[in-house]
Amino acid sequence: MAEQHVFLDGINYYTLLEQPPPGIQRKNETILLVHALMSNLHMWDHTVQTLLREGYTTLRFDHVGHNKTPPPRETEQNFSLHLDDITRHMHSLVLQTTGRQDLKAVVGCSIGGVLALRYAMLYPRNVAKVISIAAPGIVCLEAAKPLWTQRIAQFRQDLRTGEATLAEATVNRWFPHHLPSDDAVRAEALQQVQTCSLEGYGLLADAIRNYDYADEVRGILGQEVGVLIVAGSEDSSVSPGLLKDLAGRISRARFVRMEGAGHLPPMQRAGEFEGVVLMPFLAG
To answer: Using CA atoms, how far apart are residues 217 and 247, in angstroms rounded to an integer?
Structure first.
């Protein structure tokens, strides 16, 4: 396991590069995993262990202002990020941590799912496959923009009062219905969201409110990059129908609906995600 901070455009990214354990035949292929807003790289802990046992190298990072990646040193009012900036940073992180540009796959959830697709648009020659999970569409919907303003305001209020209203609401949205089987993963997710700073939340929320790849997504060619779109049947944040439509816009993209899963299937249904969705797609 190699921990490394990589400084890019004012952001000191925390990265974690992991190799298969001794005795496992290495595939010499790297998979980049991109976490959801307000989570951190540990949402992929279970997934990574499965990938390592299969011989893959994995690379993870914390988004700006999340967990071990601090907010920008100076809280400049004009500091902003576009999703394209983050995608370029991802490409640089791969090169600087692995010494190579080529990836077996980019796997992303929520905002990470959008970034995974954007990676395929910008760097089709550097990635073989993309798995986009619970992506909030390929264009920011106008109706969603006020929600982010409200959530940022709630974050500020929570900091003043010491409450965890936003954190708890976020976890409830990720894992609906309060199923007893989700208790452990809900507790884990709550710990993760509490490592997110207000600055980091605001920067990524602003990025989510300002993207539109509706035209460019059709440029992802199935013969160049394999694409899998994954939806949770119980996801209240993203309609499975919207994601099925998104898959239909991409040449030869596959679509999988995970029954009973909410917004973070890799955490909530880890075994099913890895055994039925992830590994077969990587091997195919």
So the answer is: 10
Question: At 96, is the secondary structure helix, strand, or coil?
Answer: helix
| Residue 8 three-state SS | strand
CB atoms near residue 121 (< 10 Å) = 18
Cβ proximity of 112 and 136 under 8 Å = no
Question: What region does 186 belong to: left with phi over 0, alpha with psi -120 to 50, or beta?
Answer: alpha
Q: How many CB atoms lie within 10 A of CB 152?
A: 16
Query: How far is the C-alpha of 252 from the C-alpha of 228, rounded, in Å?
Result: 9
Which phi and psi (to 5°) does residue 181 adopt?
-65, -15
The C-alpha angle 125, 90, 106, rounded to 5 degrees, equals 60
Residue numbers of the chain with a pLDDT score lower than 50 = none
What is the Cα–Cα distance from 210 to 206, expressed in whole angstroms? 7
Q: How far apart are CA 123 and CA 88, in angstroms?
A: 9
> 161, 128, 131: which is closest to 33 by C-alpha?
131
Whole-prediction pTM: 0.96
CA–CA distances in Å: residue 177 to residues 36, 123, 231: 20, 39, 17
User: pLDDT by residue (tens digit) across 62-108?
Assistant: 999 999 999 997 655 578 899 999 999 999 999 999 999 999 999 99
| pLDDT in the model for residue 222 | 65
pLDDT digits over 247-256, tens only? 999 999 999 9
If you search the block for the tokens 């370029």, which residue do you land on? 88
If you write DSSP's letter for every residue of 97-117 in order, what string do you get?
HHS---EEEEEEETHHHHHHH
Smallest CA-to-CA distance from 201 within 78, 36, 42 is with 36
